[in-house]
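Internal ticket - ligand job 272, uridine 5'-triphosphate:
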Amino acid sequence: MVKKAVIPAAGYGTRSLPITKVLPKEMLPICGRPAIDYLVEEAVNSGIEEILIIVSRYKNIIMDYYDRSLELEMFLKQKNKSHLLQTIQLPDVKIQYVRQPYANGLGAAISLAQTFVKDEPFAVMLPDEIILAEKQTALQGLISIYEKKQSNVIALQEMPLKELGNYGVVDVTLNEENLFKINKIVEKPVSNPPSNLAVIGRYIFNPNIFDYIKDIKPGIGKEIQLTDAIQVMIEKDISFLGNKISNTRFDIGKESDYIKIINHLYSKKNGL
Ligand code: UTP
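stdout (structure tokens):
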């Protein structure tokens, strides 16, 4: 059973500067809630019981958000605003943190989760991707595949050619409907992407991935790339499956998607 999730949130959010100089991308407000809270909700709704958030020096506000504020609770009670207490109720999940001292790559960030993960399979959720639940959450889909196949699983989505260069892109063989065997993964291909299927920010990994990340040398952007560890594992015949998901997804590092998700959720909340 997959009960643990890791949310790497130690990057600088350069696409969203200047606001991310003082406000982490993960805390950008979306209809009154920080962006990361939509991932925490997805995790809880997918049966995750423990979350590790990888933070940096400038992200203490994330820890504050998931801590109780006894003064505020008292204040609301004294001022006859107890109906607002439910808005600050903490999610039903255990949250821990680890600091990444230097943002030297997603692979390096994930390697900091080894003590938390121990010898269990675990989910990785990238917080710039908010994926709306449909029949099920994106993560639930991956977890149910993991439970049947015991294989590493990566969420995939079809992307227009001009956008593929911003993603990890996979070469695949179709196994079953929406389920692919991944033959190769290329990070941000400059030309000739192996397909139009891009890696979306949800993964399930077996814990042996840590053995491979530790040997990875800095790659694109001089960062320890998670994709490079995955490619080494694929070359060693370690199974990676790709699940093509159809859920609506917003990349909040893109201003247009940030505005779209606010409009979408606001309209839904107000029945517009
Ligand atoms: P990105 O490189 O897309 O995120 O990493 P970023 O650097 O925060 O944002 P942009 O692209 O410059 O706007 C994907 C995820 O991995 C985390 C980031 O916080 C982000 O959620 N990450 C990346 C780390 O936790 N540590 C790293 O060293 C790198």
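Auto-summary: Residues 8-16, 25, 54, 100, 103-106, 108-109, 126-128, 253 surround uridine 5'-triphosphate (CB under 6 Å). The radius of gyration is 19 Å.
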